[in-house]
From TrEMBL:
<feature type="domain" description="C3H1-type">
    <location>
        <begin position="453"/>
        <end position="475"/>
    </location>
</feature>
<dbReference type="InterPro" id="IPR019734">
    <property type="entry name" value="TPR_rpt"/>
</dbReference>
<keyword id="KW-0862">Zinc</keyword>
<feature type="domain" description="C3H1-type">
    <location>
        <begin position="587"/>
        <end position="615"/>
    </location>
</feature>
<dbReference type="Pfam" id="PF00515">
    <property type="entry name" value="TPR_1"/>
</dbReference>
<dbReference type="GO" id="GO:0035196">
    <property type="term" value="P:miRNA processing"/>
</dbReference>
<dbReference type="InterPro" id="IPR022755">
    <property type="entry name" value="Znf_C2H2_jaz"/>
</dbReference>
<dbReference type="InterPro" id="IPR039691">
    <property type="entry name" value="ZC3H7A/B"/>
</dbReference>
<protein>
    <submittedName>
        <fullName>Zinc finger CCCH-type containing 7A</fullName>
    </submittedName>
</protein>
<keyword id="KW-0479">Metal-binding</keyword>
<dbReference type="InterPro" id="IPR000571">
    <property type="entry name" value="Znf_CCCH"/>
</dbReference>
<dbReference type="GO" id="GO:0008270">
    <property type="term" value="F:zinc ion binding"/>
</dbReference>
<feature type="zinc finger region" description="C3H1-type">
    <location>
        <begin position="587"/>
        <end position="615"/>
    </location>
</feature>
<keyword id="KW-0802">TPR repeat</keyword>
<dbReference type="InterPro" id="IPR011990">
    <property type="entry name" value="TPR-like_helical_dom_sf"/>
</dbReference>
<feature type="domain" description="C3H1-type">
    <location>
        <begin position="719"/>
        <end position="746"/>
    </location>
</feature>
<dbReference type="Pfam" id="PF12171">
    <property type="entry name" value="zf-C2H2_jaz"/>
</dbReference>
Amino acid sequence: MYVLLDTLKVCNVNSLFAFRSTLPFPGSQEQYEVFIKDLVWNLFGEGNDVFKEGEWTKSIEMYTEALSIAEYADSEDICVPTRLLEKLYANRAAAYLNIGLYDQALEDCEKALQLNEGNYKALYRKAKSLKEMGRHQEAYEAVAKCSLAVPQDTSVTQLTQDLAKILGLKIRKAYVRSKVRVSEEPSHTIKRLGLFTEKKLTTPRYCYRLLLCHNSYVIFNQLNNNETPMGMAVGMPEVKGLPAAVDLAKNPLAETHEFKQACSACYIKTGPGVLDYTLHTEEHKCRKDALLGRIKHSPDKSWKLIRPRPTKTQYVGPYYICKEVAIGKECLYPGHCTFAYCQEEIDVWTLERKGFISRELLFDPYGPNSNIRLTVPKILQEHHGIFMFLCGVCFDHKPRIISKTNKDDSSLCSHPVTKHDFEDHKCLVHILKENTVRYSKIRPLSPQCQLDLCRHEVRYGCVREDDCFYAHSLIELKVWMMQHELGITHESIVQEAKKFWNATASLQGAQLSSAQRRFGPPNLKMMFVCGQCWRNGQLSEADKNKKYCSAKARHTWAKDRRVVLVSSHERKKWTTVRPLPTKKPIPSQFEICMHVTAGKKCQYIGNCTFAHSVEERDLWTYMKENNIPDMDQLYEQWLQSQKPGWGEETSNNSVRENGKQIHMPTDYAEEVAGNHCWLCGKNCNSEKQWQQHITSEKHKDRVFNSEDDQNCWQYRFPTGTFKVCERFLKGTCTEDELCKLAHGEQELKEWMERREFLLMKLAKARKDHLIAPNDNDFGKYSFLLKDII
């Protein structure tokens, strides 16, 4: 932060020096206007940064300098945006308040309100200034206007109550909406409110009246649910970090970022670095398969490539910029780096991981003038996996059971006991198989469905389940949008998915033949065998799961226990090849060892950097020319040449496309007879295995902790002691992060919110039978079950 601030200061000092100079500006009038506006924005940003650090006087200096330049710009007929001036006055007022200059704060608030009379921050700070000056009646009138704009703001409510007490006013109770009668069906209540008509949905927007009904319906379900777990709060409280509504049709970065679509024909690499690209704007038929972004009002106007978010990692913390790229060097892992290359990537990835943004909607493709249409292939190209039908009764069972059609009788499901009628109870499911298996149910589209994500399901699981009108996953939302546009049925979706994968398999088959011809030296055949078996003269390759060798002894198929053998067309004899020499620099060409050439045994067999056979020399040369540094990578590429997608941790039938793992429908042909944990993506084939899983520490940690809410909390994790530390308030607490009490009212408030949020997740897990009935041992989360002191 300090390095960044110092850099900004240097840039601003240089800009101010150039601005104050009497020399002519070296550029056009338009460039001069941009220069002036950027200077004001930069000073505004720097003022905000030092304000956050508690340096009120310095922030006032920055805001004042920005306002002075804006006044000068006005004299030169350069218009600085009104909203920027409004923010400068309001923020300077806040700084004046913090150092006790209430007169100046009131003056700045009045100026901000002249520019925008609805600025609630200026109204609130005006009220605080007037209160400190003893003008209580005027302060109350100001904060009353503010409370109309932000009725739920606790700071505004508290100030209103304080002023009402001072003035001797009676504090009235707020009106509370009456609850839905239990005797009335929720669907009848919804229809009676006139929320839905027979007309088709036109735009994916939230309806305020629908949201009220949605929350009332949640309360109705909880009141009528006899199995509501203890600790389950009625209603859905707002949780810090979660917006009031997750509306994918809106771009949450619209105010701060710009986005653009491009392709390899217009976004061209111009240097060795990962950021060395230039966008060409000539007319061409753009495929629009790349996302570009840049931050508004930033001195750097170049477009940055925003790569797909890395998903093949268990990391759940905040994203960081690659350290090599940050210091101007080349990335050590181009194409595989899971760190961001720019701030724009961090901003998009963070919102994507939380489910608050969809990159397809950054360009408003569902606006009135758009011709973009979703299709099954388009959806499967981004959300790899397959659409298929499963038994809906088994899928909705608590805990979940995965059942397909019975092999002996296709009219029944494959569950060994119940054997439900498959055709009557089937449901469409999207199955994604990566490190674990994820099943996303696609419910039928109805007139009541809303084309938005359910904010409760995103965070802790929607208690309404199939009765909810909102999409419970991004894949379900896209399928609904596709059905809304095309009217396609679930049966057609499954057929289209099969056609897509058949076409993909044919393409991969063609690529397989060419890959097999290309890989390895042209005069050599290659195979990997078990090293322990080879010492006994036995050729044993890996089994189909690549965990053991194919011999009866079943030796572990580990990296250090396999060797590579090659056979030339001339000798037709299998020969061992040692790892590539690590001596630096690598010679321009490899030579045969003179001892071997003379027919003798090499005296440096453990460290000899010369080849011990013609075959070894040819393979080493091939590895050097193709940048294959070791035998592990040689093994991976050899597997790819045998069958695309094979690898150390991938299934036999998977393929890869652009570095992403894809799976064929045959990957999902295995039968699952036991329970499935949707939290961990694990299938259990017996009751004993299921009980072991749901009582494991790793599973119970997943109940409370997921990557979706890692960055939603500002303060420490709660300790279970929900009190404010008196020593902290007096400034004498020396325990810092180790203190068991909350350091301030704001931290205590977040602890209470976080407790309610975690209780929601625990209640959802109990409802889905993912927690043993009598299990109350949750480690550091056990305080949830205790009453707050």
